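Entry 14. Ran structure prediction on the chain below.
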Amino acid sequence: HRTRPIWGLQYHPESICSEYGLQVLKNFHDLTRPKKRKLASPTLASSKRGYQYKLDIQRIPVENHHKADTWIQQFQEHQHLIWLDSSLLISDYSRFSIWGALNGPMSYHIQYDMHTKTIIRTQGETQETIQQSIFDYLKHELCHYEIEKTSLPFEFACGFVGYFGYELYQETLNMQARHHSAHPDAQFLFLDRAIVFDHLEQ
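Output, C-alpha coordinates:
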Protein backbone atom coordinates (compact mmCIF):
# COMPACT_ATOMS: atom_id res chain seq x y z
CA HIS A 1 0.00 0.00 0.00
CA ARG A 2 1.30 3.45 -0.85
CA THR A 3 -0.14 5.40 2.11
CA ARG A 4 -0.69 2.94 4.98
CA PRO A 5 1.76 0.82 6.97
CA ILE A 6 1.93 -2.83 5.97
CA TRP A 7 1.97 -5.64 8.53
CA GLY A 8 2.00 -9.38 7.98
CA LEU A 9 1.70 -12.40 10.23
CA GLN A 10 2.54 -15.95 9.24
CA TYR A 11 1.57 -18.87 11.45
CA HIS A 12 0.42 -22.44 11.27
CA PRO A 13 -3.33 -22.70 12.02
CA GLU A 14 -2.75 -25.11 14.85
CA SER A 15 -0.57 -22.56 16.66
CA ILE A 16 -3.65 -20.54 17.60
CA CYS A 17 -4.79 -23.45 19.74
CA SER A 18 -1.37 -23.74 21.39
CA GLU A 19 -0.31 -22.32 24.73
CA TYR A 20 0.71 -18.98 23.19
CA GLY A 21 -1.89 -18.74 20.43
CA LEU A 22 -3.82 -15.92 22.06
CA GLN A 23 -0.58 -14.02 22.70
CA VAL A 24 0.38 -14.30 19.00
CA LEU A 25 -2.90 -12.65 18.00
CA LYS A 26 -2.62 -10.04 20.76
CA ASN A 27 0.90 -9.10 19.64
CA PHE A 28 -0.29 -8.64 16.07
CA HIS A 29 -3.23 -6.53 17.25
CA ASP A 30 -0.97 -4.30 19.35
CA LEU A 31 1.62 -3.85 16.58
CA THR A 32 -0.98 -2.78 14.04
CA ARG A 33 -2.79 -0.20 16.12
CA PRO A 34 -3.11 3.13 14.30
CA LYS A 35 -0.20 5.38 15.13
CA LYS A 36 0.21 9.07 14.58
CA ARG A 37 2.97 9.35 12.06
CA LYS A 38 3.50 11.14 8.78
CA LEU A 39 3.41 8.80 5.81
CA ALA A 40 4.71 9.39 2.31
CA SER A 41 2.31 11.27 0.10
CA PRO A 42 1.22 9.28 -2.94
CA THR A 43 0.63 12.50 -4.85
CA LEU A 44 4.22 13.61 -4.46
CA ALA A 45 5.53 10.16 -5.29
CA SER A 46 3.47 9.82 -8.44
CA SER A 47 4.35 13.32 -9.63
CA LYS A 48 8.00 12.22 -9.85
CA ARG A 49 7.29 9.19 -11.97
CA GLY A 50 6.53 10.73 -15.32
CA TYR A 51 5.38 7.36 -16.73
CA GLN A 52 1.67 6.73 -16.90
CA TYR A 53 0.16 3.82 -18.76
CA LYS A 54 -3.30 3.16 -20.06
CA LEU A 55 -4.91 -0.25 -20.44
CA ASP A 56 -6.15 -1.25 -23.86
CA ILE A 57 -9.10 -3.56 -23.18
CA GLN A 58 -10.44 -6.12 -25.67
CA ARG A 59 -13.01 -8.88 -25.33
CA ILE A 60 -12.00 -12.25 -26.75
CA PRO A 61 -14.74 -14.78 -27.60
CA VAL A 62 -14.06 -18.23 -26.12
CA GLU A 63 -16.47 -20.12 -28.42
CA ASN A 64 -17.46 -22.73 -25.82
CA HIS A 65 -13.92 -24.05 -25.49
CA HIS A 66 -12.71 -25.32 -22.16
CA LYS A 67 -10.50 -22.67 -20.55
CA ALA A 68 -7.51 -25.03 -20.70
CA ASP A 69 -7.89 -25.22 -24.49
CA THR A 70 -7.91 -21.43 -24.68
CA TRP A 71 -4.79 -21.36 -22.50
CA ILE A 72 -2.97 -23.77 -24.81
CA GLN A 73 -3.92 -21.78 -27.89
CA GLN A 74 -2.56 -18.56 -26.44
CA PHE A 75 0.53 -19.63 -24.50
CA GLN A 76 1.82 -23.04 -25.57
CA GLU A 77 4.96 -21.58 -27.17
CA HIS A 78 6.04 -19.50 -24.15
CA GLN A 79 8.56 -20.63 -21.57
CA HIS A 80 7.67 -18.20 -18.76
CA LEU A 81 3.99 -17.75 -18.01
CA ILE A 82 1.47 -17.42 -15.17
CA TRP A 83 -1.99 -18.79 -14.42
CA LEU A 84 -3.70 -17.27 -11.38
CA ASP A 85 -6.72 -19.50 -10.99
CA SER A 86 -10.14 -18.86 -9.48
CA SER A 87 -12.00 -21.87 -10.78
CA LEU A 88 -13.99 -22.16 -7.53
CA LEU A 89 -16.62 -19.47 -7.96
CA ILE A 90 -17.37 -17.60 -4.74
CA SER A 91 -19.59 -14.54 -5.09
CA ASP A 92 -17.58 -11.31 -5.43
CA TYR A 93 -14.33 -13.14 -4.64
CA SER A 94 -13.10 -15.69 -7.17
CA ARG A 95 -14.78 -14.79 -10.42
CA PHE A 96 -11.63 -14.40 -12.55
CA SER A 97 -8.58 -16.35 -13.66
CA ILE A 98 -5.58 -14.42 -14.98
CA TRP A 99 -3.19 -15.67 -17.66
CA GLY A 100 -0.03 -14.01 -18.86
CA ALA A 101 3.32 -14.58 -20.54
CA LEU A 102 6.31 -12.62 -21.82
CA ASN A 103 4.65 -11.83 -25.13
CA GLY A 104 4.65 -8.03 -25.07
CA PRO A 105 7.32 -5.47 -26.00
CA MET A 106 7.60 -4.15 -22.43
CA SER A 107 7.46 -7.51 -20.65
CA TYR A 108 10.50 -8.98 -18.94
CA HIS A 109 11.61 -11.61 -16.44
CA ILE A 110 13.70 -11.20 -13.29
CA GLN A 111 15.16 -13.76 -10.93
CA TYR A 112 17.07 -13.08 -7.71
CA ASP A 113 19.87 -14.76 -5.79
CA MET A 114 19.82 -13.62 -2.17
CA HIS A 115 23.36 -14.71 -1.31
CA THR A 116 25.00 -12.54 -3.96
CA LYS A 117 22.19 -9.94 -4.08
CA THR A 118 22.14 -10.43 -7.83
CA ILE A 119 19.16 -9.85 -10.11
CA ILE A 120 19.18 -11.29 -13.62
CA ARG A 121 16.84 -9.29 -15.83
CA THR A 122 15.91 -10.83 -19.18
CA GLN A 123 13.96 -8.95 -21.83
CA GLY A 124 13.77 -10.66 -25.18
CA GLU A 125 17.32 -11.54 -26.22
CA THR A 126 18.86 -9.04 -23.80
CA GLN A 127 20.09 -10.13 -20.37
CA GLU A 128 21.33 -7.76 -17.68
CA THR A 129 22.90 -8.45 -14.27
CA ILE A 130 22.02 -6.00 -11.48
CA GLN A 131 23.69 -5.93 -8.04
CA GLN A 132 20.80 -4.89 -5.82
CA SER A 133 18.36 -6.23 -3.28
CA ILE A 134 15.14 -7.47 -4.87
CA PHE A 135 13.14 -5.27 -2.49
CA ASP A 136 15.02 -2.12 -3.50
CA TYR A 137 14.71 -3.03 -7.16
CA LEU A 138 10.94 -3.56 -7.01
CA LYS A 139 10.44 -0.41 -4.97
CA HIS A 140 12.35 1.60 -7.56
CA GLU A 141 10.48 0.08 -10.50
CA LEU A 142 7.05 0.53 -8.91
CA CYS A 143 7.80 4.21 -8.31
CA HIS A 144 8.00 4.58 -12.10
CA TYR A 145 4.82 2.62 -12.79
CA GLU A 146 1.41 4.19 -12.73
CA ILE A 147 -1.70 3.20 -14.64
CA GLU A 148 -5.02 4.92 -15.20
CA LYS A 149 -7.99 3.57 -13.29
CA THR A 150 -10.50 1.53 -15.25
CA SER A 151 -14.14 0.54 -14.83
CA LEU A 152 -13.32 -3.17 -15.01
CA PRO A 153 -14.86 -5.46 -12.35
CA PHE A 154 -11.38 -6.49 -11.12
CA GLU A 155 -8.30 -4.65 -9.87
CA PHE A 156 -5.57 -6.48 -11.77
CA ALA A 157 -3.88 -4.10 -14.19
CA CYS A 158 -0.76 -5.99 -15.30
CA GLY A 159 2.65 -5.32 -13.76
CA PHE A 160 4.70 -7.69 -11.61
CA VAL A 161 3.52 -11.25 -10.90
CA GLY A 162 5.76 -13.72 -9.09
CA TYR A 163 6.94 -14.94 -5.72
CA PHE A 164 9.29 -14.28 -2.81
CA GLY A 165 11.01 -17.45 -1.66
CA TYR A 166 10.86 -18.56 1.95
CA GLU A 167 14.62 -18.18 2.41
CA LEU A 168 14.32 -14.40 1.98
CA TYR A 169 13.48 -14.18 5.68
CA GLN A 170 17.25 -14.29 6.19
CA GLU A 171 17.56 -11.02 4.28
CA THR A 172 14.55 -9.24 5.74
CA LEU A 173 15.64 -10.13 9.29
CA ASN A 174 19.26 -9.20 8.50
CA MET A 175 20.46 -12.69 9.38
CA GLN A 176 23.52 -14.46 8.11
CA ALA A 177 22.37 -16.51 5.13
CA ARG A 178 22.86 -20.21 5.84
CA HIS A 179 20.23 -21.89 3.72
CA HIS A 180 20.55 -21.88 -0.06
CA SER A 181 17.65 -22.86 -2.28
CA ALA A 182 18.21 -24.66 -5.57
CA HIS A 183 15.64 -22.28 -7.07
CA PRO A 184 15.67 -18.48 -7.40
CA ASP A 185 14.98 -16.77 -4.08
CA ALA A 186 12.54 -14.52 -5.90
CA GLN A 187 11.18 -14.53 -9.43
CA PHE A 188 8.83 -12.16 -11.22
CA LEU A 189 7.37 -11.55 -14.64
CA PHE A 190 6.55 -7.99 -15.62
CA LEU A 191 3.42 -8.31 -17.75
CA ASP A 192 2.35 -5.58 -20.13
CA ARG A 193 -0.64 -7.66 -21.25
CA ALA A 194 -2.76 -10.47 -19.85
CA ILE A 195 -5.93 -12.46 -20.47
CA VAL A 196 -8.56 -12.39 -17.72
CA PHE A 197 -11.05 -15.26 -17.90
CA ASP A 198 -14.48 -14.47 -16.46
CA HIS A 199 -15.95 -17.61 -14.91
CA LEU A 200 -19.31 -15.93 -14.43
CA GLU A 201 -19.92 -14.66 -17.95
CA GLN A 202 -17.60 -17.17 -19.71
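The CA atoms of residues 161 and 189 lie 5 Å apart. Will compare against last week's run tomorrow.
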